[in-house]
Each structure stands twice: as structure tokens, then as C-alpha cells.
Amino acid sequence: MASSFSLTMGTGNSFGRVFRISTWGESHGGGVGVNLDGCPPRLHLTREEIQVDLDRRRPGQSRITTPRNEADAVEIVSGLTPDGITLGTPIAMLVRNKDQRSTDYLDNDMKVAYRPSHADATYDAKYGVRAIAGGGRSSARETIGRVAAGAVARKILKMYNGIEILAYVSKVQDVKAENVDHDTFTMDDVDSNIVRCPDAASAEKMLERIDSIRKKGNSIGGVVTCVARNVPAGLGAPVFDKLEADLAKACMSIPAAKGFESGDGFEGTLLTGKDHNDEFYIDPETGATRTKTNRSGGIQGGISNGENIVVHVAFKPTSTIGQAQETVTRDGKEVEL
Known about the structure:
Layout: E1 14-15, E2 20-25, E3 31-37, H1 47-57, E4 74-76, E5 91-96, H2 103-106, H3 120-127, H4 143-161, E6 164-172, E7 175-176, H5 187-190, H6 200-214, E8 222-229, H7 243-252, E9 257-262, H8 273-276, E10 280-282, E11 289-291, E12 299-300, E13 303-304, E14 309-315, E15 326-328, E16 334-336
Antiparallel strand pairs: 1-2, 2-3, 3-5, 4-5, 6-7, 6-8, 8-14, 9-14, 10-11, 12-13, 15-16
Helix pairs in contact: 1-4
């Protein structure tokens, strides 16, 4: 892969403005974490609150996740008083890597050969050097910092307007979740099975599909749907700072994300304007302007309208598989990996 650009400054590790996060660390380094700037002062925050979400993310929980054995115990190293009150200063959170096995990558062809559809070749093209073990910054362990900071954001949003944010696996290959009510499903519903789908019947079909592919040493992709409830109308801005544009950047920066939809997304192109439009009505109980349907996914003109925010993120099949593949080495030799 030919290099086309020589400026190789290490940027792109931060997201947000008022509430800004910067993640850091490599998959098989000493640890990973996040610096969070913009958390309000005088907020009571405990390590245990952060750990709840990290435990949901932790690897090795089932046969369909990575087998890496990590406790992912978070350490909050700045930004709090001794009794757990936020100071309004940056909050640094660290998770130490315990099960890093660099020899799995260094004592074989992977130290010189590019793994297909991984970031090996592109990192080499940009930086001229890369963290060979585990993919470095391109590893899914980078998301630990997002999850830790997200737990803080979730707490703030809940306090602000009772905002509740949930996500679930809505599709695995062509097996789609059915009968999921975005107004009522709960985190307990999502966590009731290892697929993380709140519809039990669909989850069983998804698991059967995953197992059938996994037994062949292969992988498949899927879709995650995220729902934010109780979001007030008026969030977001026109043109370049549209709410769905910001959400798209956040979601598309997650490792393996390859597609983003807001509301009905691409399926909306199959409808006419009359069928797709969300007609308005006045809520008889609150007097608020509401929509009869939510094909817009709670966002119109880039601004929230008070309905549920609904987005879908497509994830490609896991690139690490147990089958032989053709590739090349750093010095241009064609090999089988």
C-alpha cells in the first residue's frame, strides 16, 4: 500500500465540545482509559456506577464474545474529592490490561503479515509503525474509555431531563428482532440473553445463526439500535451541527461500524412522502405537540422534536476469523495467514 501523505501527527482521539472525551491506550499495552473534561462540579459519582457499564461491556462473558479474560476494573485517578464529589476538573479513568498476550501476535506471521480487513496496512501507510499486538488503537478495547465516560454522561442526562438511553442488537445478518416496543423495553430485557436482544424468540434465532457460522471458524455482522427517551425538543443545530450528524460521527467512529441510519433511514426511501411524513397532533394530557409516528427518529431539520431518538448502527463481521486467508507482508511478499 503506497503512502500518499507524509504528515503523521497523532490526532483524532477526542470527541465533544462542552463535554469532551479523549481516549487513550493500546489493546496489549499497560492499560486503556479516558480523560473527561466538562463534567459539572458537585455531582456525586462513584467507581461502582462506572463499573456497572464496564461489566456489561467486559469480554469473555459468553461463547459469542472474545475469549480474552479481563476484569476491566476501573480506577478514577482525578477529578473527585475523597468522598466522591466531582470537582469540575478533568476526570481521568484507567483500566489496566491484565490478559495481554503479545506473543500470540509476535511469535508468528502476524508480526509481518497484514490481517485482512484489519487496520494493519492502513496504520503502516499513515504512521510507518504500528502496535502489532491486538491492533493497538484500532482494537475494540478502545471503547472502554467511551463506556466509562458514557456512564458519566448517562448520569448527567438522567438528572437533566430524565433522559434514558438504551441499545440492543436488532439484527444479526438477516435475522431481525421483532416485537420490540421502543417506549417500554428495559435494560433487563436486553440483558436477559447473551445476544443482547430484548425479543427472546428473535434472540434464539440470532444465536442459532451465530453458532452455525462460528463453528465454521467464520463470523457475521449485525445491527445495533439505540433509543434515547425523554429527550426534550430543541437539541441540535442546523446544517453542519445537526443532531444526527453528531450522532453519526460518534457511532461511526466505533470499531467495525460501517453504516448509520437515523429513524427509518434507508428503508424510508421505499415510501412516498405521504407515507413517510410524521403527522402532528396535540397530546391531550400534556398539551405538547407530538407526532403520530416516528419515522424521523425523533429528529427533524437536525433538531430533536421531543420524540424518542432512534438510530441504527451496522457492524461488519468480525475480521478475526479461524480460516486461512491470502494477504501480503510489510515487504510485499504474498503469503497465506
